[in-house]
């Protein structure tokens, strides 16, 4: 389990997911193409969200609410660099993004046009106009649809990981949520189940300090969300969510070492 | 699926040594430590012994009534865990809020619920606390600061968090104590209730009775930690794990937890290690439990341990303790007879208590 906070700035040490990892394999450093991809993904996310929130929403063209991940793009991007894709049903990882992970959708291959259509309730959107904003998913892109009830995607992500284990593949389930969701019963049930069954799932907490209006100090008595991991017998660590390299390294360690190798 | 179940049904009896290898470390009795008196008077110690014995004799008699088909509904035994109910309840102040679960008949006895009420309740008679409309321990008793258990495991925890919050808002120095099993810790309600109590710093004492099995699910299929006390730091609260078969250790740990809560130190997660030596309920022959685990825990019987302690420390003789048991058995025989002679509820009773404000 990972929580993003603190203050570490340390590039390098991570690797790309172009080649499927094997247990015990050393992570290669990200190359120039990878660095550019990270920057591009963060910029694309910010530009797209800016367009949706500051233009289209104010013009009354958006159906429903808008939730943005401004300032948190590094979390989605740093983590999503490790999601294995393009290898087919039994190779690709699966991801359950939260409502502040626009970058994950983009990196999984959903086009900005489809996302804009989704926000505007159009037929070309991911839910074909039947739901708005981030309430979308597409299993062709290995994206589990975001569930409105925060924390509910945790047992779902654990269930995805269980199918990987039953099928004997080395796929990983990535699951994103906010710090407020960690107070939910579903979150507890899902994390505990994943721990007991030793499932290949990486839980990534986007600790942005406020759950709507509730500050993190009124949400939990622990100093950092990753302190919760010990209560489940899981490894946990905290990284600076403003540092894409820190996130990249931390998620890389977890998805390559503990999860993928069992 | 059914073939698998049938095969494993036979395995414990046949494969004794194999079953032994399968016992997870978390299910074995903890290292045996000598019992220590936390400063209780002889009278208080003998009082605790009487409650332990009362708990066991009462449950033995209820078990006999169940087999005679006289009990309405389920019967859940606390054999080998009486020390948890009695030790925790004895450590509280009379005004503290107490919410028992299904294996905490001993807590009710310590709070002064008469054995007659309990017989009537299990026999579903009109004079019972729920007037014969529900069985087992599903009743409250506001006069004794007892909040009734909720069948859905874990759900009582947020309720007791709320009770502790209410007490604090009223400026009362009351601690709220409730129980949960090892299986109940996997429920979302456990997490939500305990997390809120932690954030608000409420005087909640959550006693986890880790008795090895949640119905047929062993603890190693329930959580991936060695001790449930490891959950404490995950909530930023104090936690402790004690040998649940040592009534004095349970008492002392509960007292520490209650004092912490009263002093503003927030909730405590108190794990008491014991073993469910009978089935989930009387109908369950627990074929899925390896026999040698049960045998290991029988050597740790909490009442035997406490009686040896009382004799060794010179507080009582073996004869004294035997006569306590004999007197209780005779008393309860009479109480059971009285309860069996008590009428069932009349049909119109079903309409009472349906709406608030009704009679």
List the topology elements.
The complex is a heterodimer of chains A (262) and B (359).
Chain A: E1 2-4, H1 32-56, H2 73-80, E2 94-96, H3 102-107, H4 112-119, H5 153-167, E3 173-178, H6 185-196, E4 201-206, E5 210-211, E6 214-215, E7 237-239, H7 244-259
Parallel strand pairs in A: 1-4, 1-7, 2-3, 3-4
Antiparallel strand pairs in A: 5-6
Chain B: H1 2-14, H2 16-22, H3 42-67, H4 82-91, E1 97-99, H5 105-110, H6 115-122, H7 156-169, E2 176-181, H8 188-200, E3 204-210, E4 213-214, E5 217-218, H9 231-235, E6 238-243, H10 247-262, E7 268-273, H11 291-298, H12 302-312, H13 318-340
Parallel strand pairs in B: 1-2, 2-3, 3-7, 6-7
Antiparallel strand pairs in B: 4-5
Helix pairs in contact in B: 3-4, 3-12, 3-13, 4-10, 6-13, 7-8
Figure out the total of helices of chain B.
Answer: 13
Question: Structural class per helix/strand content of chain A?
Answer: alpha/beta
Largest sheet of chain A: 5 strands, parallel
**Tally of individual domains of chain A:** 1
Q: How would you sum up this structure, described in words?
A:
The complex is a heterodimer of chains A (262) and B (359). Chain A has 262 residues and is α/β, with parallel strands linked by helices. Chain A has a single domain (2-11, 29-259), classed as 3-Layer(aba) Sandwich (Rossmann fold), CATH 3.40.50. Chain A has helices at residues 32-56, 73-80, 102-107, 112-119, 153-167, 185-196, 244-259; strands at residues 2-4, 94-96, 173-178, 201-206, 210-211, 214-215, 237-239. In chain A, the strands form 2 sheets. Chain A has a 5-stranded parallel sheet, sandwiched between helices. Chain A has a two-stranded antiparallel sheet with strand order 5-6. In chain A, helix 1 packs antiparallel against helix 2. Chain B is an alpha/beta fold and 359 residues long. Chain B has a 5-stranded parallel sheet with strand order 1-2-3-7-6, sandwiched between helices. Mean pLDDT of chain B is 93; it is low at 1-20. Classes of the chains: A alpha/beta (262), B alpha/beta (359). Chain A binds chain B through residues 183-189, 192-193, 195-196, 198, 218-223, 227-234, and chain B through 186-192, 195-196, 198-199, 201, 221-226, 230-237, 266.
